[in-house]
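Figure 2 data, in text form.
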Amino acid sequence: MAGSRPFDQLVGALKVYVAPYGTAVPAVDVTPSGSWVELGPTDGDQSINISGDLTFFRDNDHQGPVKAVRPEEDVVLSFTLVSLTLENYGRLLDTAADVAADAGPPATKTVPFKRGYLPTEYAVLFRGVAHSPYGNFPAMYVLPRAVVSSGVEVTTGKPTRVGVDSELTALEDDAQTDAKRLGWLVAQTA
């Protein structure tokens, strides 16, 4: 159960929220509102991958490496969205602004598939209500600037729900401190 130290937690799924890049990040214990939009329910596992391979340097006087640098870093959120509205489907396609409603009859909405050259930049929250390692408290991953980096493949089948495998990749945000330019994790402690 949440709260057992150090990290033996049983927790539920995280919720994914997006807002226009530059939107203020809410406090960890406040449900996002205003410009923040929950993308919808997820199915299966969710992951955050913080990667960056090292490049090693050697010289003639040593058998092992004498220096290491990390020339590239990535932060990628991965999840499968289910029960999508067309507006949220449009957010994954970068066409949310073009979702059109028609009064009908019948009343319809349409989401276009043309994505365009420049992806939409979002602020992203990956939130859990009981994800803090310090007790039954909320925690969230924050990507202050990110883009949808995955293709959009809708899977359907007889035994499964309609789902869209999704990835959001952090972009460096120069408006943040150096340590937080690719995002951060915040957890409530009391």
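Caption note: The domain at 15-187 is CATH 4.10.410 (Factor Xa Inhibitor).
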